């Protein structure tokens, strides 16, 4: 039983000799998630829901069965990822910690709606929206999503500061347009909360046009808010773009350092190549990037064998 649990954990990790099997499993689960998302969207069309009711139900039951099995196996095998000595108490603590981890909660949310449908009477439209949450399972398998989440974590304080400033500007814009327009358009700017809709649309530069100022002063104020919002909206976007680029740079640098360390003796052994391949997959780098890092390392080592002044080989 212990060997089976270890094997299951290694397959989910997708490292070493289990890399191909782990990748195949990831591709299968990602495909199943996307099929589920498309099916849930199509099921919202009434005539399709009636015509293919049986097919949608079978797909839902099969998918939930697979996702439930995956969830149980991950919860069961998560103890083999830890270096702690095996004991019932330690394993329970590890499983409880994993149960409350973000990825495990996303896996649980993916199967809960269907389980709720069996035991509790709920609105089907509400259930369909909850089932769409399965798309967040892609964060486990997509390296790009993991990079984006890491960018959010790294820039959380800066993003909070930017959103705080935007909230202040939102309140100022709502109060200003309320004072200017509420006498002329009491149905649209009759209160500050009502004016917040216009302020939000203007600050995000969406501009639906359903609520607009009509007085000259109101239009002047709206233009000023629009100019301010063009810079405000760009702040979070710039922070995320910069952080995303920095995450990619860090991963490439980490792989380059690993290549440099592995080639201390001037060549790569089979074990070192396997280690670098596992690291490449874990970091989400392409084979072209990995080969380029190895080629550059070989080139640098070759150039260092000769003196750049006299051209003689250095011992």
Automatic annotation (TrEMBL):
Q: Which residues form a coiled coil?
A: none
- Give the matching InterPro entries: Ion_trans_dom (IPR005821), VG_K_chnl (IPR028325)
Quick check: keyword Aminoacyl-tRNA synthetase in the entry?
A: no
Which positions, given as ranges, span the membrane? Answer: 21-42, 57-77, 98-122, 159-180, 192-209, 221-242
GO BP terms in the entry: monoatomic ion transmembrane transport
Top-rank lineage group of the source organism: Bacteria
The record's Gene3D superfamilies line, in alphabetical order, gives: 1.10.287.70
Q: Where is the Ion transport domain?
A: 24-250
Q: How does it sit in the membrane?
A: Multi-pass membrane protein
Listed name of the protein: Voltage-gated potassium channel
**What organism is recorded for this protein?**
Pseudoalteromonas lipolytica
């Amino acid at each position: 039983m212990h060997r089976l649990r270890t094997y299951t954990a290694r397959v989910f990790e997708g490292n070493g000799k289990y890399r191909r099997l782990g990748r195949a499993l990831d591709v299968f689960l990602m495909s199943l998630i996307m099929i589920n998302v498309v099916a849930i969207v199509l099921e919202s069309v009434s005539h399709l829901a009636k015509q293919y009711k049986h097919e949608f139900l079978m797909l839902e039951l099969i998918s939930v069965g697979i996702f439930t099995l995956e969830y149980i196996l991950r919860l069961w095998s998560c103890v083999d990822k830890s270096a702690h000595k095996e004991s019932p108490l330690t394993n329970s603590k590890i499983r409880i910690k994993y149960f409350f981890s973000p990825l495990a909660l996303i896996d649980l949310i993916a199967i809960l709606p269907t389980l709720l449908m069996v035991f509790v009477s709920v609105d089907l439209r509400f259930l369909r929206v909850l089932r769409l949450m399965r798309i967040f399972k892609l964060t486990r398998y997509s390296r790009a999503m993991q990079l984006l989440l890491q960018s959010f974590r790294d820039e959380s304080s800066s993003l909070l500061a930017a959103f705080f400033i935007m909230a202040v500007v939102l309140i100022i814009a709502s109060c200003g347009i309320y004072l200017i327009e509420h006498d002329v358009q009491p149905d649209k700017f009759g209160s500050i909360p009502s004016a917040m809709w216009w302020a939000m649309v203007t600050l995000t530069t969406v501009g639906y046009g359903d609520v607009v100022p009509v007085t000259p002063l109101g239009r002047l104020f709206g233009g000023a808010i629009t100019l301010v919002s063009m810079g405000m909206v760009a702040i979070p976007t710039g922070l995320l773009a910069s952080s995303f680029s920095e995450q990619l740079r860090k991963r490439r640098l980490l792989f380059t350092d690993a290549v440099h360390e592995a080639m201390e003796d001037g060549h790569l052994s089979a074990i070192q190549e396997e280690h670098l391949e596992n690291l490449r997959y874990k970091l989400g780098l392409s084979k072209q990037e990995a080969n380029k890092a190895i080629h550059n390392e070989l080139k640098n080592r070759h150039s260092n064998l000769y003196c750049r002044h006299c051209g003689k080989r250095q011992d």
